[in-house]
């Protein structure tokens, strides 16, 4: 999946403009990087379009732990969307990510960030 297709899928799922979906996708990719080990961030980044992979790698420079709600708050602050838009947007990015990378890579990444994130897209 290339970056324009990824963004379009996020825009459709989250009912956002393409520009908002692109900003949201980049912010979510960086947040995911924060939650992953450096090795897993590298592996995930390799399967993503470069426009997103670079943000995963950037995020991996600062490893943190936080829950889904904190991720939503950080997205909201970073991209200026409302709380419900940020929540729905993060869910849309995770759902699109599941389709954009191999099942193995998605499972590996989700095992590190916590089942709470996986549950929101089931």
Which keywords apply here?
79% helix; 8 helices; globular; 122 residues; mainly alpha; Globin-like
Short summary:
The chain is mainly alpha-helical.
Number of domains: 1
What does the largest sheet look like?
none
β-strand amount: under 5%
What is the CATH homologous superfamily assignment?
Uncharacterized conserved protein DUF2267
| CATH class designation | Mainly Alpha
Number of strands: 0
Principal-axes geometry comes out as globular
pLDDT < 50 stretches:
none
CATH topology: Globin-like
Helix content: over 70%
Helix/strand order, N-terminal first = HHHHHHHH
- Overall CATH architecture: Orthogonal Bundle
Contiguous helical run count:
8
Summed over residues and divided by their number, the pLDDT gives a mean of 93
| Integer-rounded radius of gyration | 13 Å
Cα(first) to Cα(last) distance is: 21 Å
Provide the structure class: mainly alpha
Oligomer: single chain
SSE blueprint:
Elements: H1 3-14, H2 18-35, H3 38-47, H4 50-59, H5 68-79, H6 83-100, H7 103-113, H8 115-119
Helix pairs in contact: 1-2, 1-6, 2-4, 2-5, 2-6, 3-4, 3-7, 5-6
